[in-house]
Amino acid sequence: MSIIYVLIPIAILFVMIGLAIFFWAVRSKQFEDLDKEGFSILFDEQHAEPKTMKTDKDPSPGPDQDHNRQ
User: Which residues does 69 contact at the CB level (< 8 Å), separation at least 6?
Assistant: First the structure.
């Protein structure tokens, strides 16, 4: 029965922390536009073209590589 005296203040503390976080979120406009993220899945994002990997086995040597082939 004495555990109730510990659990009730802890529960009240959790409720107060939860309310403080909720009111902080409302003040910082976290709930301003709830539909934006729901609609974002419908539209394609602009992605850069995939990068190609350059290998050491280049079939045509450049001008700086000609002096190495003697």
Answer: 61
The torsion defined by the Cα of 20, 23, 29 and 30, in degrees rounded to 10, comes to 60
Using CA atoms, how far apart are residues 61 and 58, in angstroms rounded to an integer? 7
Structure tokens at 45: 């994002």
DSSP E strand stretches across 1-70: none
DSSP state of 58: -
Give the pLDDT confidence score for residue 37 in this predicted structure: 72
Question: Is the pLDDT confidence value at 41 over 70?
Answer: yes
How far apart are alpha carbons 24 and 68 in whole angstroms? 67
List CB contacts of 25: < 8 A, sequence separation 6 or more.
Answer: 31
